[in-house]
Amino acid sequence: MSGTFVGMPAFPAFPSAAREAVRDTTLRGNLRHATHTIRAKRAKAVAEVSDWAELREAGKRIKDHTLRHLDHHLVRLEESVTAAGGTVHWAADADEANRIVTGLVKETGESEVVKVKSMATQEIELNEALEAAGIRAYETDLAELIVQLGRDRPSHILVPAIHRNRGEIRDVFAREMGGWGRPAPEGLTDAPAELAEAARLHLREKFLRAKVGISGANFLVAETGTLVVVESEGNGRMCLTLPETLISVVGIEKVVPTWRDLEVFLQTLPRSSTAERMNPYTSMWTGTTDADGPRAFHLVLLDNGRTDALADEVGRQALRCIRCSACLNVCPVYERAGGHAYGSVYPGPIGAILSPQLRGTASEIDASLPYASSLCGACYEVCPVAIDLPEVLVHLRERVVEGGEATRSGNKVVLRPAKGHAAERAAMRAARWAFTYPGALRTGQRLASRTRRLHPRTLPGPGRAWSGTRDLPPVPAEPFRDWWQRTRGGNDVKGAAE
Prior knowledge:
The chain is of the alpha/beta class.
């Protein structure tokens, strides 16, 4: 897995990446300030809604229903988009999606595009594919612009440059803007108004010149073929309306059946993400018209592992995600490690369950992500579509230990053997054998009790990493079975429990 931008190194496993991140005091300070501010505002915005729990449940049910009948809704969506004058393309993976988009841009004869913030295009590394084809992509979201100019990687779903403070942003603008277009004004300070104005001036010439725009979408309405983008700056509206050709790359899970369903998410998404009652800019478009907007519209529907995730009855919850980032802002692990440690465009708790399903668990980073959590449950409590992230994390840990990634074979979900983790799998198999044979378990318990004074306080070898931060539970002087027989007159333990 390469970095999100050209030249970035391969990602290490989460533990080593997180270990480096927590040593960066500036990063931790930036993250602490930003996440605490966002989650406090979100809590206040959500508290204003008396039926929030009902909206949350409605969103969950709409998403679950849609995922169960995804094939039907996608066909309906294609028919609606086509009837409205758009063209639908199907991409099984990142390579196919990049080939489609690159080909469409080349057909226009253009060598540059403007982009709305899009996690799907980051997921497939579209910018790199376009660059290899001689096409330059300009990010127009303010935070994405900061990341691009800084040759950096996004570290947050909502605020990709959350790891940067104002002084760092000023330095990036002053140093890099001239190489991408209009340079930053002389004497630029780190005042937010000045930074925003510098970005506005820099991007304006690109908006007015670009003939091709590329976007994602927050939602796809199958009923009418309408796409929806919610954003806070207005750059999205410029990209969606000014170019002559618009290409939208969207994951297949973003579809909702009807406008009535969309209404639920337009209430929950802004409050959970930006802590606003409604988004400042909610842009919707349906195909093409002769009098307004782009003359050509292309929708690229992206699978890229989503069908495999859909096949997992527990893991498919991740496909409900509406990318609000609420789970990141309350996660104690994300707050300390930051987004880069997750090695994915999807950081935080949602990334820890989504990335291993989209990419599989064969790589070291993806096999480590389900363990990037304390299982405190704060992420589940704030999720506006009630994704039980701790449940999925535990489920994926089981997959890593027992079998690896899940793929569909006919009508069954098959686990492919995973690499590594041999010691853990051996320990689990030994435990299974012991619980299968009560006599062996009883003997082992008595032996452990009689030798308990000889037990070490820390584990040797690889186990030292575990016991170094935990107290080993003391072994009782007498096994429970023996205590029960002694105090209950020999009654069967199993029978008493039943």
